[in-house]
Amino acid sequence: MIARISIIILLVTLLPDIYMYRRYVKRMLGNVWARIAWWLPTLLITVSTIGVSLTRDFAPHNLTLFNTYLFITALVVLPKLTFVLCSLAGRLARRMLKLRRNWGNYVGLVLVLAELYILFHGTMVGTDRLNVRQVTIEFDDLPKAFDGYRIAQFTDVHLGSMKDELMLRAVTAIDDMRPDLIVFTGDIQNMGPDELPRFAQTLKRLKARDGVMSVLGNHDYSRYVNVSPEEALRNERMTRDFETSVGWQLLLNDNRIVRRGSDSIVIAGGENDGRPPFPAKADLKKAMRGIHAKSFVVMLQHDPSAWRRHILPQTNAQLTLSGHTHGGQISLFGLRPTELVGKEDDGLYAEGKRKLFVSTGLGGFIPFRFYMNPEVVEITLKRTNK
Q1: Between helices 32-53 and 2-20, what is the axis angle to 10°?
Q2: For residue 337, with 0-12 CB atoms within 10 Å meaning exposed, 13-18 middle and 19 or more buried, which class applies?
Q3: SS3 at position 166
Q4: DSSP bridge pairs for 194
Q5: pTM for the whole structure
Q6: Which of 244, 313, 324, 378 is most buried by a 10 A CB count?
Q7: Cα–Cα distance between 363 and 126 in angstroms, integer?
Q8: C-alpha–C-alpha distance, residues 188 and 324, integer Å
Q9: 222-253 confidence digits (pLDDT tens)
């Protein structure tokens, strides 16, 4: 991950420091040791960036050290970069408008304080604020016996960076819903199945009348470690075996029928169907095999972009449940970065009578959330044509 952008990180680390040193620090710090101290964080980040970029995998296996590196880099580099950009803009405005002061410096200081608030809140507060989202979704063709049917959805737990206490609270919240069905819509891990066993007993607590059904997400295919094809397949099997070992029904382009008397609905699950570089392993024909054209279908698909690309044109699924986006893990005045790359990134969407719900999930590869809190979702299906 860092290797792809290491040159950019090094440039935004070094160039602002050079500007600030020549313009401010050199005059303010006459002592040679004070000047050396100024450069030490930059030296540390530069060496760490080079070291991290040399890893063969998506990220180092020691995620605690990796996340510490990311936090220190954000703490040191981003404020300097913001201040320098504002200062340069202020210098330009000062010359063009013949101002007496460089107001960019003051704007930069305000933005730096805002960045530090976002960093500390998102890292130390936002990741612990569990939300229970309640959603009612209406259909006129929902079988009568399923009017009021409740589905608990959780997604994107990323157990390699998940806190035990948060996972336990999430499981307890789901149990308290007493749902008819529990669904997990992918990304149980960050990089490999070695992250999973310590959560086994917690996840085994999940119980519902119609069980727990799950699908795989992009992180569940062992694509984030540089191993032989044989070892990658072995890792994928271990991930799948773990989900079945905790009592989940893993749907690999497959479906299950849920019955209430003479009525029924179908829960179908497709493998991850992402745009490059994400895995695209969904086989919707296989997932929908044996399903009657008039059946009410709930499709589980990790990547919501598949809804418009493939699910709408190739299936008759009335409801699709997805995750993947995390809502960008940050919301500023209601704006999310994931809105820039996808139309459907958080909440309920409709195309005619067909619906998509995207949960922003519980965790993330990087443990950071700013006003995009971890969530579990209680979905109630309602019949409008009674």
Answers
A1: 170
A2: middle
A3: helix
A4: none
A5: 0.93
A6: 324
A7: 11
A8: 11
A9: 888 888 889 999 999 999 999 999 999 999 99
Using left for φ > 0, alpha for ψ between -120 and 50, and beta otherwise, residue 247 falls in: left
What is the distance between the alpha carbons of residues 7 and 54, in angstroms, rounded to a whole number?
Answer: 12
Residue 371's CB: how many other CB atoms inside 10 A?
18
Contact 5, 73 (CB under 8 A): no
Quote the tokens at residue 161. 């960076």
- Cα separation of 239 and 290, whole Å? 27
Considering all CA atoms of the chain, what is the largest pairwise distance in Å, rounded to the nearest integer?
85
As to burial, measured by CB atoms within 10 angstroms (0-12 exposed, 13-18 middle, 19+ buried), residue 380 is middle
Q: What span, in angstroms and rounded, lies between the C-alpha atoms of 102 and 160? A: 46
Ramachandran sector of residue 300 (left: φ over 0; alpha: ψ -120 to 50; beta: rest): beta
**What is the identity of the amino acid at 367?**
P
What is the DSSP code (8-state) at residue 247?
T
Length of the chain: 386
DSSP H or E segment with residue 103: helix 103-124
pLDDT at 254 > cutoff 80: yes
Integer angstrom CA distances of residue 187 from 212, 219, 343:
15, 5, 21
The secondary structure of 268-335 as a DSSP string is EEPPPB-STTS-B---HHHHTTT--TTS-EEEE-S-THHIIIIIHHH---SEEEE--SGGGGB-BTTB
**Token pair 């020691």: residue:** 62
Nearest CA among 376, 251, 377 for reference residue 302: 251
Q: For the CA atoms of the chain, what is the radius of gyration?
A: 24
DSSP character at residue 24: I
83 in Cβ contact with 106 (< 8 Å): no
Q: Give tens-digit pLDDT for 159-193.
A: 999 999 999 999 999 999 999 999 999 999 999 99
CB atoms within 10 A of CB 94: 15
376: phi > 0 → left, psi -120 to 50 → alpha, else beta; which?
beta
Cα distance between residue 170 and residue 131, in whole Å:
9
Nearest CA to 135 out of 381, 379, 386 is that of 379
DSSP string, 177-216: H--SEEEE-S---SS-GGGSGGGHHHHTT---TT-EEE--
